[in-house]
Write a structure and sequence with these properties.
It is built from 14 helices and two strands, in the order ααααααββαααααααα. By secondary structure, it is mainly α. The protein has a two-stranded antiparallel ribbon with strand order 1-2.
Length: 299
């Protein structure tokens, strides 16, 4: 409903349902699919693409056009074949300023959770190793309603401030790495504790792991992913967000004027991670994680 619906100004639930079903059948992520449709609708509105390019009008709120475009993406047909490469690559090939309207980080489309509403998502999206994933740190839940005393969150956090949000992401990204490895659903995490996780893990494996060791495993996971990305050529410049998120307030709703200070959050984040100002793991950090073999590539 968020990405195929309101993100495209579509209110027709039947069309949204059809679009969702099509994505599920064809293996299309509904977040990226909805983002691709909205991206295309805005390009159409601004005259960057037209009916001759797409094959039909792409107007905001048109549920039938949304379903048709998703079908074209799934079949790699016409303009849909270009969108099937993702909004980042599509924007680069379209040109004419289209890059400004591709809402992604590291090539992954932003979901419906807005960093201008929940500020921790700024550092969360920018530093996530796979791009703008709201579940890489799940931090926004602790700015909305959840608490997690095991990681120092004893009360719901103020979503409108930047301070502390870099540090917040570090702890929860590490924990989410653990949950991913355990194949656990993240949604009920606020109803569990580190002790619960250890009881289950040690009970299944026969290990005797403790809390610090468990979280260190999550930290190691995150740093290894970071090293992989560095090996692929990613740098600090890729720890970024679309300019609109950083420069354009929403203007209406419950968060009309808030903009995240990404640079401030990143400074705090890198420091908490034990990384350099360039966003790279320092040798002493890698050694503390028993990742000595990667020290030289990280210098």
């Amino acid at each position: 409903i968020g990405m195929l619906g309101s993100n495209c100004l579509i209110s027709a639930l039947k069309a949204i349902g059809r679009g969702n079903a099509l994505c599920n059948r064809m293996g299309i992520d509904t977040i990226s699919g909805g983002s691709a449709v909205a991206f295309s609708m805005e390009l159409f509105e601004r005259g960057i693409i037209d009916e001759a390019v797409v094959g039909y009008p792409l107007k905001w709120g048109d549920g039938e056009a949304m379903v048709r475009l998703l079908s074209d993406i799934s079949e790699k047909k016409g303009f849909g074949a270009l969108l099937a490469e993702g909004t980042k690559k599509a924007a680069e090939k379209i040109g004419h300023g289209a890059e400004r309207y591709a809402m992604h980080s590291k090539g992954m489309d932003l979901p419906a959770h807005d960093p201008r509403c929940y500020k921790s998502l700024a550092a969360g999206y920018a530093t996530s190793n796979r791009g703008a994933c709201h579940l890489a740190g799940f931090s926004y839940s602790f700015e909305r309603s959840a608490v997690y005393p095991d990681l120092g969150v004893d009360a719901v956090l103020d979503r409108t401030v930047d301070e502390g949000k870099g540090k917040l992401n570090v702890g929860f990204q590490n924990l989410m790495g653990v949950l991913d490895s355990l194949k656990m659903c993240k949604f009920p995490i606020a109803m569990t504790t580190i002790s619960d996780l250890l009881t289950w893990l040690n009970g299944v494996t026969g290990w005797d792991m403790d809390g610090p060791e468990l979280l260190k495993a999550g930290e190691r996971i995150f740093n290894m992913k970071k090293l992989f990305n560095m090996g692929c050529g990613l740098t600090k410049k890729d720890d970024s967000l679309p300019e609109r998120i950083l420069r354009e307030p929403r203007g209406t709703g419950g968060s009309p004027d808030y903009l995240p200070d990404l640079e401030a959050q990143l400074r705090e984040y890198y420091g908490e991670r034990g990384w350099s100002e360039a966003g790279e793991p320092l040798p002493e950090k890698l050694r503390s994680l028993e990742l000595e073999e990667f020290v030289s590539p990280a210098k």
